[in-house]
Amino acid sequence: MTTEAPKQVYYDPWDTGLNADPYPMFKRLRDDAPLYYNERHDFYALSRFDDVNRVLVDYQTFSSARGVVLEILKSGMEIPLGTVIFEDPPIHDIHRNLLARAFTPRKINALEPKVREFTARCLDPLIGGDRFDFVKDLGAVMPLRVVGMLFGIPEHFQKLVQKDGDRQFPIERGGQLDHRGGVMTVSQVFAEFIDWRVDHPADDLTTELLEAEFEDETGTLRRLHREELLMFMNVVAVAGAETTTRLIGWSGKLLSEHPDQRRQLAADRALLPGAIEEILRYEPPALQAARYVTRDMEYYGQTVPKGSAMLTLIGAANRDEQRFGPDAEDFNIARPPRQHLTFGVGAHYCLGNALARIEGRIALDEVLTRFPDWAVDLPNAVFSSSSAVRGWDSLPAHV
Questions:
Q1: Long-range contacts of 15-22 (CB under 8 A, 24+ apart)
Q2: For the segment 187-231, what is each residue's pLDDT rounded down to a tens digit?
């Protein structure tokens, strides 16, 4: 097996035509070029489940500290303190443990009725109409509002966060993430809220984080700097809201294409958790994650040199027949449970995975209650893809 792939095997994370349906190419990569090298963009890629899983676990060899989005990693830019998903242990663990206060089972369970109530508020005005947009009417609205609930942001600030949401993730649709102004656009609304909360403490997560004392990587006992807390909030808003928006969009499309399975769900809501897992496996909002290689590694008889960029193809690994069986390319809400890689694995396993699953389940449950039958209007849908996320900016459906 050589690193040079057969001529017909090519993967470019910024090729919008290819990313409209990358899965045939992913299968060719798994079969013919399990270690792939893209000479034009100078990165390696792994596509088989076991290989991707091992890379994501081994943070010492495959570092996140230079960024997990390929163009950020390749830029060599400085990563701001507090960007948890772009850190390695030990600082990653220190920041993650602080942020984990937001995601305790008690806090997540307390959010569920609030998420359901807000989802109902989004959908009820649409009853009686003949169209519903999975993204514009729900997917782009509910997740950011949930971030506000998570941090105890009052509703008037939450509405401002929603209006500010489009500036949170500076992606040129169909292109590269714009890193020239920084890793992420720090929300001015979050900054104003933190300053307001300092003067108006409350029994909420933001106040708890402002007052928390911890020992940092230097052994110093201190509190979070304002900039660190601001980055925490921004990371949760970007990583959580953007991907959950995509999950809700893919739910609408996949269940429109599989009406028999949609009817099963409408009749038996106990199938919803399994359906959400299958949607996450089948169409992960993030197709890949990049890592910086800290030492020479060998795959399939070839050396990946220290200093290389490695792309882990999560979308390919999630359809690996060696992991999910000969029907891995089929969408099946009754698929027996087996861990996929949509939320990562190891030290960087997504802290918000339980909340994302709840949001997806509630969204689908409430949609099915009001609109048990739908057909997506693909000619009028708006698809977007980048190296960071892939999904729908608009997905209208006839109901």
A1: 16/174, 16/385, 19/287, 19/385, 19/390, 20/383, 20/385, 22/287, 22/315, 22/316
A2: 678 888 999 999 999 888 899 999 999 998 889 999 998 888 888
